[in-house]
Specification:
The protein has a 4-stranded mixed beta sheet with strand order 2-1-4-3. It contains 5 helices and 4 strands. The longest helix has 82 residues, at 102-183. The relative contact order is 0.15. It starts with 15 loop residues before the first helix and ends in an 8-residue tail after the last strand. α1 (16-39) packs across α3 and α2 (43-96) packs antiparallel against α3 (102-183). By secondary structure, it is mainly α.
Length: 257
Amino acid sequence: MTANSAAVANPADAPISAKLEALLNLQRIDSQLDEIRRVRGDLPEEVRDLEDEIAGYEARVKRFDEEISGLQDQIKQRKAATKEAEGLIKRYEEQQTNVRNNREYEAIAKEVELQRLEIQISDKKIKEAQYLIDQRNTEANVTRLRLDERRKDLDTKKSELDTIVAENEAEEKQLVTERETAIQPVESRLLTAYDRIRGNMRNRLAVVLVRRDACGGCFNTVPPQRQADIISHKKIIVCEHCGRILADVEGRAAVNV
């Protein structure tokens, strides 16, 4: 396949040979980018997982802190209620010394009993709230320890990833720029098909050559007549076994992948 030196305004109007050459060139660039990113292994995904896990721990700690703050407010309110009840009891007891009859005395005694009951309820609520605070503090501390561990793990993973990225940063940027240019002559429907096929293939190869009478992607045999059709470049032909685009037969292609 020879390079098509004449620029085509509309990629859809380009000859089949030019379309296939553009796809091969795009595949070549993408394969190089895949190789660079393969070196990173699972690090990018591990970094994202750790970031998500850390966000979850941070949200959990925040919920614990908010709950503890709410419980502390409840304790303050209950202590204030207790203090108020104690003041009322003192006032009622002073009033009891000046009552004129048993009815007044019993009425004041009932009020004192109610205030003492209020104090008992407040004491119980304070103890319950304090128990919950201790429990939440324990859970929050455990979560903070896990959070610190994950943050350290994230720093380590990010450092490893940054080192790998830095080693290939210039080359990757250059390839990304080349890819943006390489996409321009590719017809939109072919680009869509190309991306779909790449997404379905483990080795990310969507466009291949016929090598040694076999598909360069799945290695199934390509019959001679099929090869002749591929070489003629009259239409775009895909492998009947894997669905990859068969761009040319080895030895006749101008661009190799």
